Amino acid sequence: MPAARDPRPLTGEPLSLDLLNTRWVQDGAERDLLADTDGLAVWLAAHGLDGRFTADAATLRHALQARDALKAAVDESPEEGAARVDAVLAHGRIRATLTAEGPGELFEFADGSWGPAWLAARNYLELLATAPDRIRACAHEACVLHFFDTSRNGTRRWCSMAVCGNRAKASRHYARTKDA
Q1: Which of 39, 56, 110, 111 has the fewest CB atoms within 10 Å around its CB?
Q2: Residues 149-171, mean pLDDT to the nearest whole number
Q3: Which H, E and C letters describe 15-50, residue by residue?
Q4: How crowded is residue 135: how many other Cβ atoms within 10 Å of its Cβ?
Q5: pLDDT tens digits, one per residue of 119-144
Q6: Cα–Cα distance between 162 and 10 in angstroms, integer?
Q7: CB 121 within 8 Å of CB 70
Q8: Could you tell me which residues are beta bridge partners of residue 105?
Q9: Residues 43 and 22 sit within 8 Å (Cβ to Cβ)
Q10: The pLDDT of residue 173
């Protein structure tokens, strides 16, 4: 049975930020894709992880732990967030390999249900190593989404110009016309 359609307003971000974006605000109410294992199945499928990992209660519990750790690292205290992300990373490791194609890496988990959570935490480390200043929260005050700014000059402010950027422009226009 194919996974249900992904209802989130922003998809396609790197794995770690996409895990953060499983919680969003719609029509003034907070929504959570990871409210159950069906939502976890949607998220796993969105990243091609559904063939490698099972959308069960343990995997969901670990994904939620990783999401909370990433939120702490991105939005709150880097010190507290680091310890929480490290706690997730403690459940897996990378083993260097040599294949016919050349050097490679294998991800290993003592408990496979930690796989998606560990991969998301590992992806966050990769983003930090690449361009930590490009990990951003949407600038709209009512938005809780995050993105990795891939714009050429690094000035992206909104998760989506069509949604949050337009809301901000409409608010500024309304304020100008109201005062005039």
Answers
A1: 110
A2: 79
A3: HHHHHHCCEEEECCEEEEHHHCHHHHHHHHHHCCCC
A4: 21
A5: 999 999 999 999 999 999 999 888 99
A6: 11
A7: yes
A8: 96
A9: yes
A10: 52
Distances (CA, A) of 21 to 9, 32, 81, 110: 9, 9, 17, 27
Token output for 155:
């000035």
> What distance in Å separates the CA atoms of residue 152 and residue 168, rounded to the nearest whole number?
22
Residues of the chain with pLDDT > 70: what percent? Answer: 89
CB neighbours of 138 closer than 8 A, spacing ≥ 6? 144, 145, 146, 147, 157, 158, 159, 164
pLDDT at residue 180, rounded to an integer: 58
The reported pTM is 0.88
Q: In which element (H, E) is residue 79 found?
A: helix 78-89
Distance (Å) of CA 22 to CA 48, 54, 110, 130: 16, 18, 26, 23
Structure-block tokens of residue 107: 């991800």
Which pLDDT does position 112 carry in this prediction? 96
Q: Are 13 and 150 in contact (CB under 8 A)?
A: no
Of the candidates 165, 80, 85, which has an alpha carbon nearest to the alpha carbon of residue 127? 85
